[in-house]
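user: can you give me the structure for this one chain? tokens are fine.
assistant: on it. calling the predictor now.
[tool input]
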Amino acid sequence: MLDTPHITQSTAQQAAVIHLTIPRDQIRTAMGPAIQEVIDTVAAQGIGPAGPVFSHHLSMQPGTFDFEVGVPVASPVMPTGRVRPGELRAAKVARTVLQGNYDKLPDGWGQFMAWLDKEGLPKAPDLWEVYVKGPSLDPDPSTWRTELNQPLLG
């Protein structure tokens, strides 16, 4: 289920990220280890995480995910392994929250994109998800909350 979408201004957040370019069908096997690597790195450096995990999709291709997985940090991360400094940029965004299991994300994004098109809102090529509440906080998928953010042009 999607909350009512709205337009807001996001603020820039410094982050620690891992950049991945993978086939779509590898998302479930690649994302978990990348998240753990980022969390372990920022925890070892004593700089976070300073907020929930996110994935920032840099471009949308039919068969490939080109994205960064990361967490906000209190100060810049020292590059370690695949972890690099990054940022979620400040942007005017359309935002909604998906309530429920991650397997509902494709349908949720489809509904959200249909709303954006209906409203005539010009979309930037990137988008991001913030995993506000997930399995690390509660194993019950009905309590999970994923914030969907679509930057807008203009």
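assistant: here you go. Strands lie at 6-10, 13-23, 54-60, 64-72, 84-88, 91-99, 127-133, 145-151. Residues 6-151 form a domain with the Multidrug-efflux Transporter 1 Regulator Bmrr; Chain A fold (CATH 3.20.80.10).
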